[in-house]
Amino acid sequence: MRVALFLTCVNDMLYPQTGRAVVRLLERLGVEVDFPAGQTCCGQAQYNTGYRRQAEPLVRRYAEVFDGYDHVVTPSGSCVAMVRDNYPRIAARAADEGRDEGLAGAAAAAVPKTYELTEFLVDVLGVTDVGAYFPHTVTYHPSCHGLRMLGLGERPRRLLQAVRGLELRELPGAEECCGFGGTFAVKNPDVSAAMGQDKIDNALSTGAGVLCGADNSCLMHLDGMLRRQDAPLKALHLAEILASTEERPYMAAETTGKIR
Amino acid sequence: MSSTYLGLPSFPVAAAESTRDEQLRANLRHATHTIRAKRATAISELTDWPELRAAGAAIKDHTLAHLDHYLLQLEAAVTAAGGTVHWAVDADDANRIVAGLVKATGETEVVKVKSMATQEIGLNEALAAEGIHAYETDLAELIVQLGDDRPSHILVPAIHKNRHQIRDIFSRQMAAWGRPAPDNLTDTPADLAEAARLHLREKFLRAKVAISGANFMIAETGTLVVLESEGNGRMCLTLPETLISVVGIEKLIPTWQDLEVFLQTLPRSSTAERMNPYTTTWTGTTDGDGPTDFHLVLLDNGRTDTLADSLGRQALRCIRCSACLNVCPVYERAGGHAYGSPYPGPIGAILTPQLRGTTTELDASLPYASTLCGACYDVCPVAIDIPDILVHLRERITEQRRGHALERAVMKAATWVLDHPSAYALARQTATRTRHLHPTELPAPTPAKAWSNARDLPRFPGRSFRTWWKDRPAGEAPHGRPAREDTTR
Ligand code: SF4
C-alpha cells in the first residue's frame, strides 16, 4: 500500500505541525507515508472565488504528483471535497466547452484515491483507537465540508472518544458553519465575524480547553478570534491530538498558544 | 424589477449594518431556529423523503425542458375554462396589463393574496401610480405594508418584527388604511390577530377585484393552486367578481398527479406542517361559484434568460418554501433586507442575479453572500445545488465585470506560483524568513484589513514541514522512517 500525504497549501505555509502529526500518527499505525515534493494546492480558492480555469493546472498537477500512490491522505476536509466534488465538475465543464486537456483523466485518477484523514483511519485502516493520550477537555467542531459534503459523520468523534485521558464535551450548534468560507471572510467580514463569534461563544460555553477541528482553514479563523480576545480556549487540529501519546505527549508548536 | 429595490447598497455594506442590530439578530435567531427544528421533525416522519425530493426535482426539470409545450397546453385549458391568458415579458409589461384590467372594472381598490411574483414586479407601487389601492391581506404582508417596510422573508415577510413592534404599527397605521386598531391594543398574538381580522374583513366584503399569484399551475386542466395558512387567500380567491393572477412561467407542472409530490414536500419544508390549512384550486370560471372574470398573467421577467443557462436554470425549480433561508447562517445574521430583493437568503443569492443580471454592485455581490456551507442544498425539497450555482455565478461575475481585474491578476499569479514548485518554495521560504516582521493586525486600508479587524493573523512557523521532512534521520520508526524526538514541537 503506497500512501502519500497531501499536506495542502495552508498547512504547508502555516501549520507544519499538523503535517508532522499526520506523519507521526500514520507511522505509529504501521503505514509508510511518502511526501511527494511537487505537491502544492488543490485549487479550491481559485475555484470557489469564480476562477475555475485557474484551478485547471492544479487539477492536472495533483493527478501527476500523486500518480502511482494507492491512497492520498490529507488533514483537510475541504480539500478532499474540492477533489471529490469539484474536480469532476471542472473536467465536465471543460468538456462542455469542447476541451479536455487531460482534465477528465486527472479527475478520474484523483477522486477514488483521495481520503480525508479520519476516513482513512476508520474506513481504510479500520481503527478508531489509535493509541493516543491527551489529558484535556475537548469540544469538536465538524466543519461544513466534512459534515455535509464528505459525510464524515461520527468518525472524528469516535476517534476522539477513544483517546485516553480526553474528555469530549458536546458543542452546542455544532453543525453550524463557523463563518470562514475562504474569501467570504474578507468579502463579508462582518457576517463572518458574527458567525465566528457565535461559534466561539458556544465553544467557550462547554468549558473545554481545546476546540478541535479537522480543517485548519476554519481553525485559523476561529483561533484568530480566540487570540484577539485572549480567550481561554485553544484551537487545535484533530491530527495533533491523535498523534499525542503518553511517551510523546502533545507540545504546543512555537506559533500557537498553550492549552489553559 | 421594482423601483423599491433601486439604488440599494451591496450585500456586505447592508449586512455590516444589519448584523449590528441586536434586536434584529435576536428576532431572526429565535424565529429561524424554531422553524428549523420543527421542519427537521416534520421531514423525519417521511421514510420516502429522498425519493420525494428527487421526484420533485425531476418533475420540475422535465417541465422546464418542455416549457413551451406545457405553457401552450395551459393557455388552451385556461381559455377553454373561461379564463383569459396574458403574456408579460417583464415587470413593466405585467404591471401595465394588470393596471389595465383593474381600470376596465372601474374599481380603484383591490385585495391581494400573498404573492412573490407581484412583489418581484413591484405591482403595488405601479398600481398606486395609476390611482389604484392594493391591500395586502396576508397578516405578515399587512404588517409590512402598514409599516411602509420591505419583506425580509419569503414565507414570513415580517419575520424581522416582534409583537411589540407589530402592536405599534397597527395602532399607528391602521386608521390611515381603513378600520382603525382597537383602543388599548395589547401585543398578545390573539389581540393582534383579532385587530387584523376586523381590519381585513371590511376589505374582503367590499372588494370587487382580487389579485393573486399561484404556487402551481397544472397544465392538463388549466388549474391554479394556492397553499396558505390563514384563509385570507381563500377569501380573496372566492368573494370578488374579478380575479387576476400573476404567475411566473416556471410555476407550471404537467399533471394533478405531479401535484401530489409537492403537496407533501412544500408544507413540511415551509411551515413544518404535514398539510397546510387551506389549499385552494380554481379552473377558469364557474357559473354561480367564485369570480366571474378570471385573468392569468404569465410572467417571464428574466426567466427564459435563466433557463438558457444549463446550470443556473436549476433555480427555476424553486417552490418558494423558504427552508433554505431558515437554515442559512448568513441570512440569520444579515437579515432579509440586505439581499435587496423580495427573494432573500440562499435562493435570492442565486435567483436575483439571474433574473436581474449582475450590472449593479448589489446584484454582483449576492453570489458572494455565502460561505458555501451547504446547509441550503441539504434541505431544499427540489434539490437545487445552491452552492454549485453560487460558484458558477461568481465565475460569470469575474468574467463579465470590471473591478475584478486586480483579483484576477492575483489569482493568475497564485496559480502560476502553485504550478511551479520552485517559485512556490521561494514564496514559502520568504514568508518564513520575514516572519518576525509580520504584524498580527494590519493597518487600513488593505484587503486583509477585513480579516484582521476581528481576528489575529496566523503566525508563520519558523521551520517548514519540508525542512523537517528532509532532515528526518532514518532508522527509528517503522519502515525506517522515524519520527524525530520532538516532532510536534
Ligand atoms: S431554493 Fe429550495 S429550499 Fe430554497 S425556497 Fe426554493 S425550494 Fe425552498
Description:
The complex is a heterodimer of chains A (260) and B (489). With 260 residues, chain A is an alpha/beta fold. Chain A has two domains: 3-124, no CATH class; 137-254, Rossmann fold. Chain A contains 13 helices and eight strands. Chain A has helices at residues 9-14, 16-28, 44-49, 52-65, 77-96, 103-113, 117-124, 144-149, 155-161, 184-187, 189-205, 216-228, 238-243; strands spanning 3-5, 33-34, 71-74, 114-116, 137-140, 167-169, 210-213, 234-237. In chain A, the strands form two sheets. A four-stranded parallel β-sheet of chain A has the order 2-1-3-4, with helices on both faces. A four-stranded parallel β-sheet of chain A has the order 6-5-7-8, with helices on both faces. In chain A, strand 7, helix 12 and strand 8 form a beta-alpha-beta unit. In chain A, helix 4 crosses helix 6 (103-113), helix 5 (77-96) packs antiparallel against helix 6 and helix 11 crosses helix 12. The radius of gyration of chain A is 18 Å and the shape is globular. Helices cover 50% and strands 10% of the residues of chain B. Chain B has two domains: 3-157 and 193-304, 3-Layer(aba) Sandwich (Rossmann fold); 405-480, no CATH class. The longest helix of chain B has 23 residues, at 22-44. In chain B, strands 1-10-7-4-2-3 form a six-stranded parallel β-sheet, with helices on both faces. With 489 residues, chain B is an alpha/beta fold. At the A-B interface, helix 1, helix 2, helix 3, helix 4 and helix 8 of A face helix 1, helix 15, helix 18, helix 19 and helix 20 of B. The complex binds iron/sulfur cluster. Residues 269, 318-324, 347, 379-382, 384 of chain B line the site of iron/sulfur cluster.
Task: Write a concise synopsis of the structure shown.
Chain A has 260 residues and is of the alpha/beta class.
